[in-house]
Amino acid sequence: MKQRRRATYHLYTFLVSKMISTLGANVYAFGMSMFILSMTGSALSFAANLIFSIIPRLILSPVAGILADRFPKKLVVLAGQGGAILSIGGLLTYSFMFDLSITAIYVTTVFYTISNTFSSIAFSASLSNLVDSERIQKAMSFNQMALSVSGIGAPIVGGMLFGFVSLKLFLCINIISYLIAFLLESTMDFRLYSSKKLVDKNEEALWQSFKEGLRYMKTKPALSHLLIVILWINLFFTSVSVGTTFILVEVFKLEYSLIGLIEASGAVGMLLVSVFFASRSNVRYPLLFSKRAILGLSILVGTIAIPLIFHFSELLLIIYFLVIMFLFGSFSVLTNTPIGVMLQTVVAEEYRGRVYGILEMMALGLMPIGSLIFGVLYDTVPAEIILIVCSLVLVAITLVLLPPSLIRTAYPELSNESSDIKPATVKNNEMLTRKQLEIDYQEHIANQKQLSNPTTRGF
User: Fold this and answer.
1) Burial level of 387, CB count in 10 A (0-12/13-18/19+)?
2) pTM for this one?
3) Which architecture characterizes domain 1-191 according to CATH?
4) Confidence band (pLDDT; 50, 70, 90) for 429?
5) Which of 44, 148, 180, 358 could connect to 271 by a Cys-Cys bridge, CB 3.0–4.6 Å?
6) Environment class of 257 (CB within 10 Å of its CB; exposed 0-12, middle 13-18, buried 19+)
7) 396: helix, strand or coil
């Protein structure tokens, strides 16, 4: 009972700390982007800061996963949070001593990204150690909820802070938010539900540990197939992130305020479905559920092309894209939450950090490639053709890599349930046979009554 109460404390502490740190990170990213643009007016400088926030994460994600498996996860999480505080604190100190420069922001972005990489991967790999198995789905839903709230609130809060307070106060607010998250996470017991024994730190080399993580993933066919599907999704879904903005701005010439409203509807969909998931018990068959959600997402990609083929009024166009982006946000949670539950329950604790690290590295590696490919394609190929082809390819990839046989292998009880359920044709035949027997029996009874009653006999 005491352990469950502690898990409940972890659940809601995780929600608060994740929301604070995620909102703080997004507000910082938004504010720094605005500051760079206002200082230089250069899109290249803005893009360079974006690159400095991706490259360290891409390179160090596997290392973060290895260290999360090798050292106490709480230590890695708190070290990452402390590094984020020191990074922003260093930029704040620099701003008091010198005029703030673009180079100083770039250096801060690199160290800040490194710190966040270690903290987020170790925290993700720790969820099933913090809460009981019955509430892992709720924890994953809380994670999605924090992401959606930060997606909605970060541009609002970041814009207000950037417009009304000094940069030094802006940085102080970010340091305070990370400090609160650090203090909350320091009170959590990261070994509450841990089954892993503490081992000697003199383990194999990092490269050998990384290869061991890859070998482990190959021993889990359902998991490895699902992760491959996720990677393809990350690649082809850049057609949506790049294409939606391109279509709304260049094709339909919508105002930027309306585009912001349309993009915000996706975060609203994420938030509502996260609340729904948090109130329900764990999905019984996460892999099957995610497959259906991925198919739904794949079909949604093709629906973006409909307004490009048929004429829509401006009002109908805005409503249509509000609904589509809302559904995208909803289906992304329907996809990610069961996958997160599966990673927490299927992957052994001693490999979980490496699996998350490898997944993060591959996903981040494909996103810039996809953005480059589709950026070129949208300038040369009609957008509706790109979206329809991507939709069909995603459906095909999902059906090929997640076939029914793989689902039945992952969940053998599904075969037993399906064998107990007779096909519709067999049911119909049995119903017709029973009906005919009832009719024959009733006719037999009527004939017997006529034979036993002399007044009804014919002359």
Assistant:
1) buried
2) 0.80
3) Up-down Bundle (1.20)
4) low
5) 148
6) exposed
7) helix
